[in-house]
Amino acid sequence: MSQLTTMERVGLYGGGALILIGTVGMGLLEIVAGAPHPVSGEGQVVHETLISISVRSYTILLGLLLLAAYGVSNLATKPPEDTSI
What are the transmembrane regions (predicted)? Predict the structure, then answer.
């Protein structure tokens, strides 16, 4: 197994970390902070968030883009290991 280069580490670890922060990290922060979910007069649940949903979405999207960039660069620069297929 080969050693990872710096760019591969940024793509893999950075992308994975951003996805985990956007889903698990910010979700746990919402639970711990106890974001209220009051009910309006019409019976609708009003969801108030501590962290904007767009910030969470862009964090996850940036992580996915880093992983995709790693995958494309890995596919373009490294020849396949087994060429007998």
Answer: 12-35, 55-76
- Helix then strand then coil, % of the chain, to nearest 5: 60, 0, 35
Q: How far apart are CA 59 and CA 23, in angstroms?
A: 9
The CA distance from 80 to 85, in Å, is 10
pLDDT digits (tens, 9 = 90+) for 21-58: 999 999 899 888 877 767 777 777 777 788 888 999 99
Closest CA to 26 of 53, 63, 62, 5: 53
Q: How far apart are CA 23 and CA 64, in angstroms?
A: 12
Regarding pTM above 0.90, the answer is: no
Strand partners for 45: 39
| Residues whose CB falls within 8 Å of the CB of residue 65, separated by 6 or more in sequence, listed in order | 15
